[in-house]
Amino acid sequence: MKSFLTIFCLLAALFAGAESCSASTDSVGIIKTVSGEVFLVSTQKSLSAAPNMKINRGDTIKTGATGSVGLIFDDDTVVSLGPNSEIAVESFMFNPVDQELSFVSRLIKGTFCFVTGQIAKLAPKKVKFETPEATLGVRGTKFLVEID
Questions:
Q1: Sequence-distant (≥ 6) Cβ neighbours of residue 119 within 8 angstroms
Q2: pLDDT confidence of 18, banded at 50, 70, 90?
Q3: What is the pTM of this model?
Q4: How far, CA to CA in Å, does 129 sit from each of 66, 73, 125, 134, 135?
Q5: Comparing 7-21, 46-60, 79-93, which segment has the lowest mean pLDDT?
């Protein structure tokens, strides 16, 4: 399991330099890579995820037993999810000119690897990851979370 997590984090770091697609008003990032069963669930529908699909505030990304996915947010935050994982994007604001910065996500279950982006550098107290047991504040740049 440790070697899988190491590879998982290394893949996340590789995506950190990738550029995202142009974003719509509600878009906060994109799905960069997909392997196996991965779903993007919005308030209106659930779709099989594919590379370059946009992620919006309020979306949930779920992986199945064979799934993994790489996400890149507009501030260059990179998130990787392993099998049987689920994350909800609660809040995301990235407007550094007006100092409107916020990234809050809810980690529901599974394995997650994070390489934080510009929001964590500019306003670390505005980045939070909520888990069933605690809320994590970001004080570093890379971390791994596993929720049973």
A1: 75, 77, 94, 101, 102, 103, 126, 127
A2: very low
A3: 0.81
A4: 24, 14, 11, 9, 6
A5: 7-21
